[in-house]
Amino acid sequence: MIRFFFHPTPNPAKVALFLEETGLPYEVVPVDTSKGDQHTPEFREVNPNGKVPAIIDTEGPGGTEARVFDSTAILLYLAEKTGKFLGAPAERAELLSWLMFIASGVGPFSGQAVHFQYAAPEGLDYAVNRYRREIERHYRVLDRHLAGREYFVGADYTIVDISAWGWLDRAGRVLKGEDVPLASFPNLKAWFERIDARPAVAKARAVGQDHTFKKVNDEETKRALFPSNYRDIVL
């Protein structure tokens, strides 16, 4: 059994999609990041970095319990555990390259673009432009690569597609003000629509819906989500 520490945000969504694609048995453990659940001592034992997602696999290697945090690490771990969505052995280098590009580029720059467009104080035009332009550049890299391709690596659906879907599903928020957010990236748009039509996607979107997560953006939420902004919070 896998204990899946979850909040309805892009990185946990990737893991939810993988779990639904494979049918692995799992239990959702809600972590309300707007209330600061990620900073409790109990959760820091699961992920010392205080972020979701994280998993505890009670049937890890050799029958031992395995703790895994960071969405990319979790996808790799589960793909190796199940032998699914890793692509052909000859494509491993390509798979790792695109997986890390999403982990170190698309994800962080999407997150910063969202932060500075929606959460940061007004007047930070340089930062808004910087991250918005960079995520558009990242999208162009993906769009060019997908020309003539159905998936990112080889001929098959892999954890690269699963990882990318988690953030591209939020393109409308990342590219604030765009009526059709992927219109300028036709190959990426076609890829997203193909992935988004998979039956497991609807199931992944339903994960956690039986729990009421906090949605009010008050001072508690800001302190929980952006603790580095507050000098009185020891991280």
TrEMBL record:
<dbReference type="InterPro" id="IPR040079">
    <property type="entry name" value="Glutathione_S-Trfase"/>
</dbReference>
<feature type="compositionally biased region" description="Basic and acidic residues">
    <location>
        <begin position="35"/>
        <end position="45"/>
    </location>
</feature>
<feature type="domain" description="GST C-terminal">
    <location>
        <begin position="88"/>
        <end position="225"/>
    </location>
</feature>
<protein>
    <submittedName>
        <fullName>Glutathione S-transferase N-terminal domain-containing protein</fullName>
    </submittedName>
</protein>
<dbReference type="Pfam" id="PF13410">
    <property type="entry name" value="GST_C_2"/>
</dbReference>
<feature type="region of interest" description="Disordered">
    <location>
        <begin position="35"/>
        <end position="54"/>
    </location>
</feature>
<dbReference type="Pfam" id="PF13409">
    <property type="entry name" value="GST_N_2"/>
</dbReference>
<feature type="domain" description="GST N-terminal">
    <location>
        <begin position="1"/>
        <end position="86"/>
    </location>
</feature>
<dbReference type="InterPro" id="IPR036282">
    <property type="entry name" value="Glutathione-S-Trfase_C_sf"/>
</dbReference>
<dbReference type="InterPro" id="IPR010987">
    <property type="entry name" value="Glutathione-S-Trfase_C-like"/>
</dbReference>
<dbReference type="InterPro" id="IPR036249">
    <property type="entry name" value="Thioredoxin-like_sf"/>
</dbReference>
<dbReference type="InterPro" id="IPR004045">
    <property type="entry name" value="Glutathione_S-Trfase_N"/>
</dbReference>
